[in-house]
TrEMBL record:
This is PTS glucose transporter subunit IIA. It comes from the Bacteria. GO terms for cellular component: cytoplasm. InterPro entries: Dup_hybrid_motif (IPR011055), PTS_EIIA_1_perm (IPR001127), PTS_EIIA_component (IPR050890). Residues 21-126 form the PTS EIIA type-1 domain.
């Protein structure tokens, strides 16, 4: 059964290899792509797929859409060091979410002032790159198809 992972934010799709973090760039966490939000000041981050919000931190979340597979969305690089500053949570870990549900509002100014990358990796956990069809590099709107599994 094919699953579509939607873009959680609006921006520009870039290859994972261009993410300024070797763990993501080398796909050590899993295959996927990243989105550069460009000059956006504030982003509403939405659920890219329906499922259980198994992990929710201010800077990252995982939605399990299958018992053995989840989608990780990481808001920026090294943004864990911001200790939640600039992030407003709109959901709770453990809840069921639908694709498009608002999960986090992100004020990117805080990350930029701290000189953190605001690139957003979207990674499919427990997946093989060969099973994924990734969106082409270029502009994308939140809710558009980003990754297809199967």
């Amino acid at each position: 059964m094919a699953v579509t992972i939607a873009a959680p934010i609006t921006g520009t799709v870039i290859p994972l290899t261009e993410v300024p973090d070797p763990v993501f760039a080398k796909a050590l966490v899993g295959p996927g792509v990243a989105i550069d939000p460009g000059v956006a000041a504030t982003l509403t981050v939405t659920a890219p797929v329906s499922g259980k919000l198994t992990s929710l931190k201010p800077h990252a979340f995982v939605i399990s859409h299958r018992p053995d597979q989840g989608v990780l969305v990481h808001l920026g690089i090294d943004t864990v060091h911001l200790k939640g500053a600039g992030f407003t949570l709109r959901a709770e870990a453990g809840q069921q979410v639908e694709a498009g549900d608002e999960l986090i509002v992100w004020d990117l100014g805080t990350a930029r002032e701290a000189e953190k990358s605001v690139v957003v990796p979207v990674v499919v956990l427990e997946a093989n790159a060969g099973d994924l069809t990734l969106a082409e590099a270029g502009p994308i709107d939140a809710g558009d198809a980003l990754i297809r599994i199967g």
